[in-house]
Amino acid sequence: MAFHIYYLDDEKELCDNFVDFFASDEVIVTAFTDPRTAIMSTKFLVPDMFFIDYRLPAMTGDDVAEALPASIPKILITGDI
User: Which residues have C-beta within 8 Å of that of residue 63, sequence separation ≥ 6?
Assistant: First the structure.
């Protein structure tokens, strides 16, 4: 059974890079650029892990994490230093 990862970032290029780097026969990666779509998608498939960009145009990564089921492990990421 494959491990399923969701990745959310408003930059499409970063989404593509994440998918290219982590996807394999054992790991399925689904990337999203829209937080609302990402949140809604968990109603149909609950991922094993969810990476969330902290800085999104419409909401913060904290807002997204709060809207997701508590059972999903979440990792907030940012390019800020």
Answer: 35
Q: Rounded to whole angstroms, how far apart are CA atoms 19 and 66? A: 24
Write down the pTM of the prediction: 0.94
Q: Is 77 helix (H, G, I), strand (E, B) or coil?
A: strand
Query: Which residues does 73 contact at the CB level (< 8 Å), separation at least 6?
Result: 48, 49, 50
In the chain, % of residues over pLDDT 70: 99
| DSSP per-residue letters across 13-76 | HHHHHHHHHH--SSEEEEEES-HHHHHHHTTT---SEEEEESB-SSSBHHHHHHHS-TTS-EEE
Q: For residue 35, give both structure tokens.
A: 């937080």
* Cα–Cα dist 66/18, whole Å: 23
